[in-house]
Amino acid sequence: MSVSLLVALAALAVALVAYVRGRARLPYPPGPKPWPVLGNVTDVRANEFWLAATDWAKEHGEIVYLHIAGQGLVFLNSIRVATELMDKRGAIYSDRAPLVMAGELCGAGDMVAFTRYGPVSRRQRRLMSLGLSKASIPAYHPLIASSTRPFLRNVLASPDDFVGAVRRYAGGLNLNVVYGLEVTRNDDPYLMKVEGATDLLANHITSGGGIWAVDILPFLKHLPDWLPGAGFKRKAAIWKKEIFESVDFPYNAVKANIATGTAVPSFCSTLLQQPDGLSELDEFDVKWTANSMYAASMDTTITTAQHFLLAMLAYPEHLKRAQAEIDSALGSGPGRLPTFEDRPMLPFVEAVFAETMRWAVPVPLALPHRLTEDDVFEGKLIPKGSLIFANVWAMLRDPEVYPEPDVFNPERFLEKVDDATARLRDPRGYVFGFGRRKCPGAHLVESSVWLLFAAMLATLDISPAVDAEGHPRHPVPVFDNSVFRTPNPFGVTLRPRSEQARRLIEDDT
Length: 509
Ligand code: HEM
What we know:
By secondary structure, the protein is an alpha+beta fold.
C-alpha cells in the first residue's frame, strides 16, 4: 500500500471520528423542558394531544423533540419537514413501535398498521397496493353504489344511531370488497365477528394510546398468568383468540366459496386464484392484510362522517348550496340518487368533501412511525428509536395556507389557483399520513366517502336535535379518543328532505 494511500485513509478515519463525535454533540430539536430522568412525562396528555403538540410548534418551531423516560417523541409540524423526513428518507422513517401487548400477547402484530418495517410489511403493502390502487377502485364502484341505499335506509330506520349506520355501511362495504361477502342483515355473523375484534382493538387493547406497562417493561410478559398483577396476560389470551377468529372466519368463507365455484371477485379471491397458486407464506399475508383493512377503515370513516354532520349543522348555508347544486344536476327533489358519473357536475359537493377532510383531520397525529437510525436534519440530531408524529392537525390549521382555518369554508377549494398550489393545499395529500406507511385505503375513501356524502346531501335534511320544548340543541363536540378525532355521540335530526327523497331511499328496484 502506498504512503499516500495510507495518509488518505488515516485522514478519512480522523474525519469519520470527528464526524461521529460531532454528531454525538449535535443538539436535539427544541421542545418543552424535560424533568431529569422522567423527561416530559407531565407534558403529555391523552385528550386532544394534537392541541398541545401544536402549541409546542408555535413556541419551538417545525420540529419538536421531547422524551418520556428516554423514549424520544418527535413532532413534525409542517408539510415541508414531514415531506423531507418521512417521504424522502422513508427507508429509515417507516418502522412502527414494538407493542408487546397489542402485537405479541394479543396477536395483532401481523396486522398491517402494527407490522415492523421489513419484509412482512413490504409484502403486505404490495398486496394492498394491488387491491386498492387508484386503477383498481372503479371496479368497486357498483358495489359502493349499491351500499348507499341500504345505508340511507338504516339512517331513517334509526335516526338516533347514525354511527351504527355508518359502521354497518363501512363494514358491509369492506366485507364485500375484501372478501366478496354480501351483508344483508345488520346482525350478519361475519360483520359481528370482525366488528367484535375491531371493538376490542380500539376500545380495549389500544385505547389510551396502546401503551401498557408490559410495553415499557417487556420482561413482564414472562410473569406466570396466575400471578396477581398478571391480569393483562389473562385478558390478552382471551382477546388473541377473538382476533385470530376474526382473521380466519371470513377468510375461510372465501376459500370455501372458491372451492364451490361461488366466489365473487374480491381482494382475497383475486389473490387466491393467481394462476401459479399461492405459497403458505403468501396465504398468511393475504389473510392478515385482508383483516387489517377492516379495523383500519372503521374509526376513520365513522369520524369523517360525523364531522360532515357537524359541519352541515354548523353551516346550514353550505348544506343548502350543495343541495341546490345536486337538484340542478339531477333534477329537483332530487330526481335520482347521485352516481360517480355525476361527480364532475358537482364542484361544490367536491369542495364540501375536501373541506370536510381538512376540517375534520380524522387522525390528527397520524400513526407514529419509528426511526430506525440516528438522523441529522438542519443541524439537529433525531435519535434512533424516536417515535415520529406527523402533526397533520397543525398542517391543516396553518392560517398561511388556509385563512381562518377553524371556519368550515368549502369555497376555499373553489378559488382558481395553479395546479402546484392546488396540490399543495389539497388536504387529501396529508390526512392519510406520510411516506411508506401512508394509508393504503386513500383511493377507496376518495370514492366511498364522496358518494356517502353526495347521497346524504341529495336526500337528507340535516338539522339540530331539539329538546323537550322544541328548541334546537346545537352540538358541542367533545373529543376524548387519543388517536382519532372522533366526537363523542351528539344529537342530530335526520329526515328525508322531500317525499321524492323518501321514495328514492325506500325504492327497492
Ligand atoms: C377517511 C378515512 C381514512 C383516513 C382519514 C385514514 C387515515 C390513515 C392514517 C393517517 C394512517 C397512518 C398513516 C401513517 O402511518 O403515516 C392510516 C393507516 C392505514 N390505513 Fe387508513 N384511513 C382511512 C381509511 C382507510 C380505509 C378505508 C382502509 C382500508 C380499506 C385503510 C387502511 C389503512 C391501513 C391498513 C393502514 C396502516 C398502513 C401501514 O401501517 O402501513 N384506511 N390511515
